[in-house]
Amino acid sequence: MNKKVEIIKALGDETRLRILNLFIRWGKNLCVCELVDSLKMPQYHISKHINILRSAGFFNSEREGTWIYYNLNNSDSSNKELFNFLKRYLNEEQFEADYELLKQRLLLREEGKCVVGFIPEKDLLKKIQMKTEEV
Amino acid sequence: MNKKVEIIKALGDETRLRILNLFIRWGKNLCVCELVDSLKMPQYHISKHINILRSAGFFNSEREGTWIYYNLNNSDSSNKELFNFLKRYLNEEQFEADYELLKQRLLLREEGKCVVGFIPEKDLLKKIQMKTEEV
DNA sequence: TGTTTGTATGCAAATATTGGCATATTAGAA
DNA sequence: TTCTAATATGCCAATATTTGCATACAAACA
Question: What's A39's domain CATH number?
Fold first, then answer.
C-alpha cells in the first residue's frame, strides 16, 4: 500500500492519536509507563499501539536499562509537516487533559529520567503530590 | 467517538484519500461518474466511500437532474486546515496521476456541467480526444 | 406510463482490526 | 543464578470494515 496512506491509516485510532498527541505536545522522549499512567490504559494496549505507530515510521526508540524511550521521528520532512498539522488540529479537551496529566506524571522524573514504573491509578496523584512536596 | 478522531479515521483508506485528493486539487464540484472514470473503480464503490466521507462532514451535495454534485465543505475552519495540509501532503505519484486523468475527464463537460455518464475505461481517452478535436 | 440513466443502498462473504489475557523477553539487582 | 521490573508479543474472540453483487430510487424523457 502507498506509504502515505499507510501513515494516515495508522492515525485513525483514538488511542494512537492520544499517544501521538502526548509526544507532539511534549516534544521529547517518553517511556511506556509514562504513557500508561497518562492515558490510564493497560500496558499491553499501549505497547501494541506504539508498535503500530513505529511500523508507520513515527518513532525512534532507545533503550536505557529496562526502560525504553520513544521519540518522534522528525528526520522525515513530511512527518514534520504532519506533526505540525496535528499539533494545531488535536485541540479538543481530551487531548489537552491527557497532556495535563502527563505533565504531572513527568514530575516524577529525576534528572530527566523516568525512575518509577507504572503506578496504580488510585496512587498516582498522591505520589506526585508527595514528590513535589519533598524539598 | 471524538469528532476529530472520526474524521481522521475516515481518511484512513486509500480510495477515500484518492477521492479527497481530487476534490482538493480541483477545488470545485464533481459528480460521481467523473470520479468513477478518474479512479477507474465501480460506481457503487465510489458511492459508498463518498457516503462515508459525507458522514464525516467532508461534503455538501447538490442535485441537478439525475446528476449529484459533491463539493468540499469548507465552512468549518478545521476542515479547511485539514484540506490545506492534505493538499501539500498527498504529493505522491498516484495522487498526481489521478488528477491528470480527472482533468482529461473534465474536458467532456459542457458549460461547466457533466453531460455524460460513466464511460467504459477503454473508450474514455478516445472519447476525450474526439471531443477536443471538435471545432 | 415505461424506459433509460445517474446514483444510493441492503445484504452477505471476505478480510482486517481491536482488546484482553497470558506469557515471553530483556536488563538490572539481590 | 534467581528475582523483579519494564516492555513486547502470540493467541483468540469480538467487532468493524471492505468489497461485490443485485437492486432500489429519483429524475428526465419518449
Answer: 1.10.10.10
